[in-house]
Write a structure and sequence with these properties.
Layout (H helix, E strand, L loop, with lengths): L2 H27 L11 H4 L2 E2 L10 E2 L3 E3 L6 E7 L4 E9 L2 E9 L7 H14 L3 E7 L2 E9 L8 E11 L2 E9 L5 H12 L2 E2 L21 E5 L10
Parallel strand pairs: 1-11, 4-12
Antiparallel strand pairs: 2-3, 3-11, 4-5, 5-6, 6-10, 7-8, 8-9, 9-10
């Protein structure tokens, strides 16, 4: 082998680690579009409307149905500027569970991507964000400073979500269940009883499924959605 060939071979070998690194970085940059859901979702919830008996009683809120239970208080969050319901809030077990459901593709999920966006959003606001493996899959725990007018200190919020058939349902857990495992188990049980009504109309991914105010349910009007009440 000539000196020129040896030099060319050495130069090629020197390039290989960088080339391999670039390939790995490109692969790592690809978003995870797989569905995130417990293996028994279809049997234990959250359910698609096609998976529950039609005669079972629910509070029908349009895109989401809630199973009634003792001690559960329900209200709807309304964005006054858009004049629409943006979230369902469920008070239960000394906790608050805020629920939203979104349209999603048929074969891919949203939660992995949305989780990454939430990490960036809250980290930019100075909050401490950690990911935990919960009963439903990956969860985000966000610890932030509470406003002085609310007593100061820190506030812990937990984000959970499940990808279903053509939808994602997300819960924001506040209060006792955000930090206490026993209370959280009761709230997750409540979350798993939810029914999502996706409907057959075409909707772009991440669009909020429409909610409505049924008779007898309190609607809490607000000037604009809070960060945890925005679309995915």
């Amino acid at each position: 082998m000539s000196k020129e060939q040896e030099a060319a071979g050495a130069e090629e070998d020197a390039r290989r680690p960088d080339d391999a690194l670039e390939v790995r970085e490109a692969a790592d940059a690809e978003p995870d579009e797989s569905k995130s859901a417990p293996e028994d979702r279809a049997e234990s919830g959250p359910f698609d409307a096609s998976e529950v008996p039609s005669m079972r009683p629910y509070v029908d809120l349009g895109g989401v149905k809630v199973a009634p239970r003792e001690g559960l208080q329900l209200r709807l969050e309304v964005d006054e500027r858009a004049n629409r319901v943006v979230a369902v809030s469920l008070e239960y077990a000394e906790s608050l569970l805020q629920v939203q459901a979104f349209a999603a593709p048929k074969t891919t999920g949203l939660w992995h991507r949305v989780r990454g966006e939430l990490v960036q959003q809250f980290s930019a606001q100075g909050a401490a964000v950690t990911e935990e493996d919960g009963a439903l899959g990956p969860e985000l725990v966000v610890v932030s400073q509470a406003p002085a007018e609310q007593g100061g200190g820190t506030r812990t919020v937990r984000f959970v979500a499940v990808d279903g058939p053509r939808w994602m349902v997300r819960g924001v857990v506040m209060g006792k269940a955000a930090v206490d495992a026993a209370a959280r188990e009761r709230v997750i049980d409540l979350f798993r009883e939810l029914v999502v009504v996706r409907g057959e109309q075409p909707m772009p991914p991440s669009e909020l499924l429409p909610l409505r105010v049924p008779a007898g349910v309190q609607a809490q009007r607000q000037g604009a959605p809070a960060p945890d009440a925005q679309q995915a």
